[in-house]
Structure formats: C-alpha cells, structure tokens
Amino acid sequence: MAFLKSIDAKLFHPEIPYKPMGKYVHFLTIRITESYPLFQTDAELNKARVRAGVKDKTTISRLSMFKRKQSTPERLVGRELLRNYALMTAEECEYNVNFAMNNPDCIIYGFAIGDAGSEKSKVVVDTAFSITPFDESHETFTLNAPYENGTMSRQGEVASRINQQDHIRPQVFFPSIVTLKDPTEASFLYVFNNILRTRHYGAQTTRTGRVRNELIGVVFADGEISSNLRWTQKIYDSMKANNTLHSPDPLDEDDVVSSAKETIKVLMSEEFIVHTDFIGEEFTQVFDEVKALTASETGIKSILQKADAEAKAYFNKYVEKPKKTPAKAK
Fold this sequence. Notes:
By secondary structure, this protein is of the alpha+beta class. Helix content is 33%, strand content 25%. Strand 6 (111-112) and strand 7 (118-119) form a beta hairpin. Helix 1 (67-84) packs across helix 4 (185-197), helix 4 (185-197) crosses helix 8 and helix 5 (228-241) packs across helix 6 (253-269).
C-alpha cells in the first residue's frame, strides 16, 4: 500500500536494490541556527576560504558544517524512534559499537564492522557552508566553571577555570542537499522524517546546538545535482542583487528561502539529467502529506514497520552470511 498520493510510485523502487540503479532523491534543506552551536575540529570552528558567489569573485571565509556533523544527529533520531516503537533494542544494536545490520538505520545509513561486514550508506551528505562570512557568523564567549556557591572563589582562592570559545551565532543559514540513493517509499519517508525531527547538531548538544531544518523541496533525478557550495554562492549572488544582505545584521529568513527556491530552480535548469522537481508550491502537498503521516502514532509506526521489513528483507538476501552446515562423516 502506497503512503503518498502526491508522488508517482514509479519514482520509488518496490524494494531496496543490491546494486546502484540510478535513482536519486535530493532533499533541499536550509539549516538555520537557533542558538549557539559548535561545528568544530581541534577546538576551532570549521571554516573554509572560498569565493563569495558565482558572480561575486571576492574571496571570503565561510563557516563549514562537515557531513558527519549533519548525518550523525539525523540517524540517531531515527534510531531513537526505532527503539521507541520496539523495532530495535539498545542491546542488539549499539551505534558505533555493535551494529545489528538488519534494521533501517544500518541498511539506509550504512555500517562498517571490520571483518564482520559493511554496508555503504545510501544517504549522501556533503559539507554545508554559511551564506554569510565567518566574521559575521560567529562570536567569542568567555566560559567559566563556578563552585557550588555560584562564584569563582573558594576559601579565598579564585579558580582559574576560565576559557574562551567561539560559537556560531543564531540565524546563520547553511543550505544543504541531502541525497538518498535508490529510494523506496518507506526509506524516503524515513530519511525525510529524520531531517524534520532533528533539532540539535554539533558539539555539546545537551546544552546548545539548536538548529532547525527548513525543507524547501525535493528533487527526484537519475543523477546527482548541484553542490552545497555552488547553491550557497548562487544564493549569495541573488541576495546581493536584491539588496537583502544587511551586514552585520542577521539575514531575514523569508529572503533566504525566497532566494534558495529561485536559485535551485536556475541550477536545476542547467543540469543534464532527467529530474522531477517538487519545489515551492509543488512541494506543499508533499510536505502536508508527510506531516500528516509522521504526526500520528499510527502513521509513523506504519512507516517504521515498512522500512524495517524492507531492511530485514535486504539483510536476509544480500548481507547475512549463510550458516555453514556441519561436514558429514565419511
């Protein structure tokens, strides 16, 4: 039984194929910081020197959100749901410790267990870049660790537990394209739901790192599409032309979303692939259908059960090693 009426069933596989079959779905996402997250390596915020735009050839530094900073929190949200609805237990499948190999998380997002086996991820996420320059997108905070009385002194001695840390400011925008290879309808909905539900990214996710994912569309295609960097640069050019870059003030979300939709349509018109786009108004019906499904216990449970059944069928057919039969006595 199909879940969605707004998307032609021919865009999905009836089951998870073993070999790449040339079907892709691209989730067009704008990641918006809503607190002070940390995307860092070796105690420094990740950044890159790149051109400001495609037309604007000025070189600037941009904040970088590495691929694992995006995919890991999303797959952990999916694993949490699988446990919540009793489709997986913490004992049988522990992330990065002991993968069960036969559930939607392992089959869709992949795993590697040394000699025991591996499965390549069907979800492709590339590094995302901030639209605004690094200097306008981060802030340095002084951090301390007070004693229980709330002060930095104890028995007349002042503690030296003071440190400085760069944080990303709120309302910094990271355009990001999440790609799912060879989707079934259930795996499409599983990844879609994970993106929508994930709220925290980066380091120290229990105290900060609040990020909202604004999906502006999905693109079904027989190949990959534009990179995150090129899309970001096109958005920058568009906003500059429309005078909606008001440095050092934060960008207006409506301006960003409008430019993101406009520029991705331009980029798709330049592609040499067959594609079916759901962007803007065309995406509204898809989004409403997905929201109605994932907002009810019956709906989300049916999606997870279908995804789990597909994952187990794939595991039994292509991953599980046949058990050795004992040799017969001569």
